[in-house]
Specification:
By secondary structure, this protein is an alpha/beta fold. 46% of the residues lie in helices and 17% in strands. It has helices at 9-16, 31-40, 59-68, 81-90, 117-129, 142-150, 161-165, 170-185, 201-207, 218-227, 229-242, and strands at 3-7, 45-49, 72-77, 94-97, 133-138, 155-159, 189-193, 211-216. α6 (142-150) links the parallel β5 and β6 (155-159). Bound molecules: pyridoxine-5'-phosphate. Pyridoxine-5'-phosphate binds at residues 7, 9, 49, 76, 96, 98, 106-107, 137, 157, 193-196, 215-219.
């Protein structure tokens, strides 16, 4: 079965909306408590994005999650020296390298692996030497897939944002299928994520070959507002299992 990684950044977004600095109260909601609920529902991993501007997940969240979770920790991050050092110290199970722009609301577009090849090659090697599995977040673009293999990644995470924004279009789905096939030919394993929800996920699960893990955040945390996080994760696992 395709595995589910749950991105809990937005639990931290809610906390940061009120508690930005040290105070006399325990800040809530706690991402570590959220991770426990996600795991209790049966998800296969916890994903967090430590952004350079620290808008949601903080350094201490990553350290605490590393110590407390039993499933896999996937750290999304940009190829920035400061964050690379944190990853090497914390040693998540997996790092997903993503592009990052300060003014974006969420990650827009995949990495341009081709133009950043030199730096990425060094970063991927250092992370892999530390025993961390490395994934590159790329659009469904065959040149980017080839470049991801060339820089030594273990995985690509296919950016499903264009598919999601196009209302789950068949043309965008075909691009994801071709990209997954190309990744497999290059010896890369395949994850996917961004903008996936309870409606557009089944077609991805059915059509895209070689899929290992789907990383999904916003739809699950949004659903959790109404039904609770454990139930929201269970429902997504069911959607994947039924597909
Ligand atoms: N994968 C990557 C690389 C991302 O940057 C994000 C967003 O943080 C996701 C998956 C999850 O996207 P969404 O929150 O839209 O499900």
């Amino acid at each position: 079965m395709v595995r589910l990684g749950v991105n809990i950044d937005h639990v931290a977004t809610l906390r940061q909306a009120r508690y930005k600095g040290p105070g006399g109260v325990t800040p809530e909601p706690d991402p570590v408590a959220a991770a426990r609920e996600v795991e209790a529902a049966g998800a296969h991993g916890i994903t967090v994005h430590l952004r350079e501007d620290r808008r949601h997940i903080q350094d201490h969240d990553v350290r605490q999650l590393r110590q407390s979770i039993r499933s896999r920790l996937n750290l999304e991050m940009a190829d920035i020296p400061e964050i690379v050092e944190i990853a090497l110290a914390v040693k998540p199970d997996e790092v997903c390298l993503v592009p990052e722009k300060r003014l974006e609301v969420t990650t827009e577009g995949g990495l341009n692996v081709r133009t950043a090849e030199k730096s990425l090659r060094g970063t991927v090697a250092r992370l892999r030497q530390a025993g961390i599995v490395v994934s590159l977040f790329v659009d469904a673009d065959l040149e980017q897939i080839a470049a991801s293999a060339a820089v030594g990644g273990n995985y690509v995470e296919l950016h499903t944002g264009s598919y999601a924004n196009a209302g789950g279009s068949a043309a965008e789905l075909r691009k994801l299928v071709a990209a997954a096939e190309a990744a497999h030919r290059h010896g890369l394993r395949v994850n996917a994520g961004h903008g996936l929800n309870y409606v557009n996920t089944p077609a991805v699960v059915r059509a895209v070959p070689h899929l290992d893990t789907l990383n999904t955040g916003h739809a699950i945390v949004s659903r959790a507002v109404f039904v609770g996080l454990r139930q929201a994760v269970s429902e997504m696992l069911e959607v994947i299992a039924r597909a």
